[in-house]
Amino acid sequence: MVLLANGEQHDCVYIAESNSYIRFWGVWPDEDPGKRAIRIEDVAQIQPSPFRLPFKFAREMYVVGESGMGYCIFTLHFADGTRQPYCTGNLIDFPEMPAGKSVCDVLALRPNQGRREESLGARQYYWCLFGGHSEKTFMQRLSHALRFS
Known about the structure:
Elements (H helix, E strand, L loop, with lengths): L1 E3 L4 E2 L2 E5 H8 L11 E3 L3 E4 L8 H10 L7 E7 L4 E6 L17 E6 L14 E5 L7 H10 L2
Parallel strand pairs: 3-9, 4-9
Antiparallel strand pairs: 1-2, 1-5, 6-7, 6-8
């Protein structure tokens, strides 16, 4: 969770080193229409997000890997005995919660369970990168290569 210098608060934010980010994703978040970005220079304060799935559960899905090309399917089991299927993109750290539930109520995550069931997705999140943008994106390299071919 970040508080910006202008007073805005964003509850779900991935903070990552920029060169590691670009090696993995291949396009900067502000160049990708599917992503939202916050400039690290605008951040006044960083705190743990109350909406982040505990790492021990998220790690279970990340170890298994995506369920299909670009998505993850999993089911969360809650303390009251209920369960909720999810279908998200590759990042699962900020799942939408059913009414009356929070990430503190999660007892287990079952990777790849919940196909063909009514599912929830992920909460809206932002990327906030730190460090220089020293590597070119795939599109920048392609554009450069096409200019000189």
